[in-house]
Every structure is written in C-alpha cells, then in structure tokens.
Write a structure and sequence with these properties.
Elements: H1 4-17, H2 24-48, H3 54-68, H4 74-82, H5 88-106, E1 131-134, E2 139-143, E3 150-155, E4 172-177, E5 180-188, E6 194-199, H6 215-222, H7 227-233
Parallel strand pairs: 1-6
Antiparallel strand pairs: 1-2, 2-3, 4-5, 5-6
Helix pairs in contact: 1-2, 2-5, 3-5
Length: 234
C-alpha cells in the first residue's frame, strides 16, 4: 500500500467482497502508525546505504522480538494487535516492532523457490503461526503475524503438519466451504492442531497483508467441528 487512502479503500473492498466483519476505523488507525514507522525505516536505510540480507534481518528480528517480550503463540500476538485490552506502552512496542520487521522482510531478495521450512515457526523471527495461503500452483506457504515473512512449507499434494511433522496425506484433513472456497482449514489427526490457509486460486488480487482478516471466515468452519477436537488442537 502506498497511502493510507489506498489502504482504507482496499480494506473496505476486501471486507465487503468476502463478507468479513472487521472494525475498519480501528484497522486504519493501526495502519497509519505502521506506515509512518515503515517510511522512517526506509529513509534510515537509504541514508546509511544499508543493503538488507536475510542474516541481518534475522539478527534485527530477534532483537525486536526480545524487546517486545513475546515468546508465546500467535493467538496472543493477534490479541495484542487487534484488541484494545492492553497497556499503551506494550501496544506501541508491538506496533512499532511489527512495522520495522514488515519493512525489512519486504526488502529481502527473492525468496527460495523450494521448501524453506516445514514447521510453523518463522525462519526470520521464530514466531509460531497458524496462518498461511495456497498459491495458484497448489503450494502451501505460511505467513508470520509478527514480521510478515512468508515461506513455502509444503504442498497440497504432499502436505506436512507444521506442528508434529506428520506427512501422511490420509491423516491430514482439509475442511472448506464449497460455496465459498477462499478459506481452507487443515487438520492434523495426529497432534490435533489446525492451521488456516487463504486459497489464492479463489481470491482475486487480495494483498497478503489482509490475510489475517480471513480468520473470521475460518472460525465459521471451525465451529462445525466437534468441540473436543478444537480444544485438543490448542
């Protein structure tokens, strides 16, 4: 997104097109802060003549992660980013840290084409995620909620559970709504974890920064599962 106006317009279109209920005003206020931080990061890097590479970003990411003080799963990270029930200082730290990392990872050279990491832990900052997407070729990518990095994790034809490493296709379930196939929930019969994927074969030009919004649609699918199965996955 090049401007807050473009962000607001795209956010509204995505929410309306896919019938996703989101507090748009709050999301826009967050993005306004993060855009400003990212702009300052770009200016700083340009002034210093720094060239961003993966090792440097990993080093910075770990420092930012330690500063934020988050060593928990992505559910808690999301709750900090999407709710107001936290102290202002911690909230600002997370917003700034996330914006810095998103800008740095966006400047990394082209990502590897092969399987980068089969686990749910981000190769850059170490944050665990349960969100990702399926590209048009059927590859499964995971998306880090903290730094925004994406990595190829497995494929639909040969899925691997990112939590326990199970690679038996018959033991990994795929849950989707045939009437609205933009969201897929993968389920591991071994460890009972689930992960949520946006299927890019059924979405049209949705910026990946908006993929966390699709969690609302996944919740409806998860509600159809037995309660004990979902609780086991937590």
């Amino acid at each position: 997104m090049t401007s807050i106006e473009e962000y607001a317009e795209t956010l509204h279109k995505v929410a309306k097109r896919y019938n996703i209920d989101i507090e748009e005003e709050f999301a826009i206020s967050i993005e306004r802060v993060q855009m400003e931080v990212r702009r300052k990061v770009r200016e700083y890097l340009t002034a210093k003549g720094y060239k961003v590479d993966k090792d440097k970003v990993v080093e910075i990411a770990r420092k930012v992660y330690d500063k934020i003080g988050f060593h928990t799963e992505s559910d808690e990270i999301r709750s900090i980013l999407l709710t107001r029930g936290i102290d202002d200082e911690k909230y600002i730290e997370v917003l700034i840290g996330q914006a810095i990392l998103h800008e740095l990872t966006s400047l990394l050279p082209d990502k590897d084409k092969g399987i980068v990491n089969k686990t749910a832990k981000c190769p850059i900052c170490g944050t665990e995620t349960d969100l990702g997407y399926i590209d048009t070729e059927g590859n499964i990518w995971l998306y880090c909620p903290l730094c925004g990095y994406t990595w190829k994790q497995s494929t639909l034809s040969a899925p691997v559970c990112p939590y326990c490493g199970l690679s038996d296709k018959n033991m990994i379930g795929v849950l989707k709504d045939k009437r609205n196939p933009s969201v897929v929930v993968m389920l591991c019969s071994n460890c009972k974890h689930y992960w949520i994927l946006v299927d890019e074969r059924y979405t049209k030009r949705v910026p990946r920064d908006f993929y966390p919004m699709f969690r609302r649609k996944a919740e409806k699918l998860l509600a159809s599962l037995p309660k004990d199965f979902i609780e086991a996955g937590q």
